[in-house]
Amino acid sequence: MFRRALVLGICGLAAGVASHARAGDAGYLDELVVTGTRTERPLLDTPVRTEVVTGDELEKTHARNLKEALINVPGLQLREIHGKPGYEVWLQGVAADRVLILIDGMPMTATTGSSVDVSQLAVLDIERIEVVKGAVSAQYGSSGIGGVVNVITRAPGSGLSGRFTTDAGSYGEQNPSGEKTEPARYGARATLQGGSEQLAIRLSASHQHSDGIDPEPETWSRPGDEFDRNDLTARLDWAPSEQHRLSASVARFEEESGSRFVVRKPPFVIRQGKDEDVYRTRYGLSGSHGDNTEVRAGWSAVHEVLEDNTGKYSARGTFDERQAESTLSRLSGHLGAPLGVSHHLMGGLDLQRETLAQSIDGASELGNAGDRDRDGRELWLQDTWIPLSALELVTGVRVQHDSDFGTHTAPKVNARYDLVQSPGMTAFIRGGVGAGYRVPNLKERHFTFDHSQLGYVVKGFQGLQPEESVSYQLGGGLSWNRNVWLEANAFLNDIEHLIQTTEDVDATSDRNDGVMVFRYENIARARTWGLEATAGWEPDDRWRLTASYTLTRTENRETGNDLNRRPEHQASFAVDGPLLLPGLSWTTRIRYQSKEFVDAASGSESPAFTAVDLKLNYQLNDQLRLFAGADNATDEQRDFSDGDDFRPVAGRFVYAGLSLAFGD
């Protein structure tokens, strides 16, 4: 039935009466960005290198969650989180623990270990996503050593409008049901908004389901986990005047997932499973006051509660029932004003509190002290100075006081010089130096990350010290008529006291069950460096071609070995264009990743791979869009019998869907 529905859906893309393709959208280089400098700038003109995933890109590629939205960002790596159906973000060879995931400039609670699972955040009401690589601690505080991913949501619109989108697809022979034509993954999301220019409200909801992925459905083990994810958000905006805007929001996320695996304890082979429930509740308040020509102020407050409950089971019953709850409360305020004709000063204050509680089978796992907490106070200043018409300097400093680790100062400076600035051509050089600083979070010091079903456990270590880094970025770019561009950027990140996991040999021996015990430790010195290059061409509003290449080198400066799980080469190529019928368009995304060390000391490696995504969109009219696609059309997939193979978990996924809209 599903195959027939899919064929009919694809045929529908090539039939019917179509409207003309939409035109008049701003080009990629004219996208406005704010993350790099906290002031709104066109992408081409920003002094801090920024990459953008636009709302148009999200629509064309049918992204369902943040992981799918980020998958084509040049040089960005998405790593599977072992034991969970989720993914984390690595930037410039720097691991996810050091990459800040923000929603409208405010952080999220780490979902697992000490990183955010980006597959849990549905693509709802996203205007764009901005990615800034390298140390930005002077901008956004601790944990920004690797960079920032800032998800920027759109404000509710006036009038009455809404959208409903649904899709379903199959993994073919790898459907856990064993039925190739049965939908193994499906989802739906809807948005309803209305109001006036002064007062508007929006309600949004999303549901995603996956049966998982299983190359051998007749066996117990299932490499890809089953999950159900539900998001519900509400936002109210009030603009009493042109210079004042207030916003209130509440979001609820729920995930239920299940994994199945085999534990071998010779001579026994034991079937086990793990069920996990995740609940995230996030409350937000924010306000903006003034305009860019005079004093402008803004503030935000977030309180987030994350619950993560897991339990394992076998034929003998349930065991290892673990409950964890973490909270994040943050209050931020900033003030900015022009000073003369060449300076713009900004400053702000951030107050943050985190708590962590965790127990297993009713007993605390955080020691005799019970629940853990930490407080932070951070003050930052920034000056944007234009001493010459062709030169812009952005300097800043952040002073951070942590209740556990005291006070630290992190400065930064960015500069941009326009070599050529004319209506038809732009050429510039751009660079920066920033200090990074990251306090070990509560999970790294106290949390137990238990994946004994996969043969390992990671335990927190209270003796950890803060990480410090210096990030160097230097590059330049050319643009012709703002529709052809070429950029190159060299980077170097030096990190002191890098926190990594190492085996606790004594603890492994004490278990006597074959499960390896790891704990977090500070590696004295590490370095990542390399080169990023991107190019693009938009001949008109229907065609777009882009390409990128990233070279990444790494070194543990104590041992001389490469850091694990960092591929040396990454490349991508993308084409968007029209097809024969008006309103019919196609999209191709090609990604290449070279082999990578799994264990540089022993020389074990994970193979290289190339993945191709193919998409079709048919905009019949302003209300109805049909779409279909094949993710990983090349069917690149890991060998599940090889523990050193970290190629994609999922093979080819073929799907179809539709989107209905009404109102403006």
Notes on the structure:
The chain has 664 residues and is mainly β. It has one domain: Maltoporin, Chain A (Beta Barrel). The chain is 6% helix and 59% strand. The protein has a 22-stranded antiparallel barrel. The two termini are 35 Å apart. The model is unreliable at 1-25 (pLDDT under 50).
Present the secondary structure layout.
Elements: H1 2-13, E1 32-33, E2 41-42, E3 51-54, H2 55-60, H3 66-70, E4 77-81, E5 86-90, E6 99-103, E7 106-107, E8 126-133, H4 137-140, E9 147-153, E10 159-170, E11 185-195, E12 199-210, E13 222-241, E14 244-265, E15 268-290, E16 296-314, E17 317-339, E18 343-360, E19 363-364, E20 372-388, E21 391-402, E22 406-421, E23 425-438, H5 442-446, E24 448-451, E25 456-459, E26 467-480, E27 484-503, H6 505-511, E28 516-537, E29 544-556, E30 569-578, E31 584-593, E32 596-599, E33 604-606, E34 609-619, E35 624-631, E36 653-662
Parallel strand pairs: 6-9, 25-28
Antiparallel strand pairs: 1-2, 3-8, 4-5, 6-7, 8-9, 10-11, 10-36, 11-12, 12-13, 13-14, 14-15, 15-16, 16-17, 17-18, 18-19, 18-20, 20-21, 21-22, 22-23, 23-26, 24-25, 26-27, 27-28, 28-29, 29-30, 30-31, 31-34, 32-33, 34-35, 35-36
Brief digest:
The protein contains six helices and 36 strands.
Q: Features of this protein?
A:
Maltoporin, Chain A, disordered N terminus, 22-stranded antiparallel β-barrel, 36 strands, 664 residues, mainly beta
